[in-house]
Specification:
- This is DUF429 domain-containing protein.
- This protein is an alpha/beta fold and 295 residues long.
- The protein has one domain.
- It has nine helices and six strands; from the N terminus they run βββαβαααββααααα.
- Helix 2 packs across helix 4.
Length: 295
């Protein structure tokens, strides 16, 4: 296993796949080595908001200053592959590796503003039928799971990655995220597809870090004492910044603390090594390797 660098900063990024130009759902929190609590970072838009392109530029700017950065994003870095031997079963000539998947998403979503990825499940897309786009579960829809999601299920289950509607959907955010990864591929180490480097991006799952602390994640932002309990479980001092009045803000802060805490654990970095599927499917940072069962 490649030993990760000593990072100078850790960013927890609560992502959004929304089509809106005003992305209140994107929040960024930052902390440095030590135990000081993470703090929210304002974006360059009015009200301190971010768009997706702003986040990309921010992490690249930080790296240009020489900062060694570990950035965590809460979207799926890839789709299930091992279960069917393909990301999109039945698609002739479809992508076979993660970087090919990101390029495929970029190609079919090209021209959509601010990395929006919804074109993949719209009419005319060659893979639209793989996605749950609206209404009741489509006939024949299979809730495919990556190996890391199955392993994570021992503590808490991620939402289906091919579901692209409702407040709980992670599908649209993951498509936008794959467009981001396509742009980062030659400028950052996308773990676990690449060994960690001075700029490393990893997939995070905030609810996992909350559950690991023994705290109920439901509307956690309304319970400051529980927020501090999760921070303490990840070696952080109590939160001391502006109120965490949304789930997105709380998730960003808690994820930054979890990243800092987990980054020093060799077992976290080596977990995907025993799961060959991780080479195509990715891995959630902090999920232990296991022999998972079905949901």
């Amino acid at each position: 296993m490649t030993v990760p660098p000593g990072f100078d900063a850790f960013l927890g990024i609560d992502w959004s796949g929304s089509k809106s130009r005003t992305l209140k759902g994107i929040r960024v929190a930052r902390c440095e080595p030590g135990s000081r609590a993470p703090r929210l970072v304002d974006g360059p838009r009015p009200g301190g908001l971010w768009c997706r392109a702003d986040v990309l530029e921010h992490i690249l700017d930080r790296r240009r200053t020489g900062e060694r950065l570990l950035a965590g994003f809460d979207f799926a870095f890839a789709y299930a592959h091992q279960d069917a031997g393909a990301y999109f079963p039945g698609l002739e000539g479809g992508p076979a590796t993660a970087d090919e998947l990101w390029a495929f998403v970029e190609r079919h979503a090209a021209g959509r503003e601010d990395l929006y990825g919804g074109a993949l499940y719209e009419a005319g897309s060659p893979v639209a039928h793989h996605y749950w786009r609206a209404g009741p579960r489509p006939e024949g829809f299979v809730e495919r799971r990556r190996r890391t999601e199955l392993a994570c299920g021992a503590i808490t289950w991620p939402h289906p990655v091919f579901k692209c509607f409702s407040a709980a959907n992670v599908g649209t955010g993951s498509l936008a995220g794959m467009r981001l990864l396509h742009r980062l591929a030659e400028r950052a180490a996308v773990w676990p597809f690449e060994a960690p480097a001075a700029l490393t991006v990893v997939e995070i799952f905030p609810r996992l870090y909350v559950r690991r602390a023994g705290v109920n994640p439901g509307r956690l932002y309304e319970r400051p004492a529980d927020v501090d309990a999760v921070l303490a479980a990840h070696g952080s001092a109590a939160y001391a910044g502006p109120p965490l009045d949304t789930e997105d803000k709380a998730d960003a802060v808690l994820s930054a603390a979890a990243l800092r805490h987990l980054a020093s654990a060799p077992g976290v970095w080596s977990a995907p090594a025993s799961e060959p599927a991780s080479r195509r499917e990715g891995w959630i940072f902090g999920v232990e390797s296991a022999n998972p069962g079905a949901p």
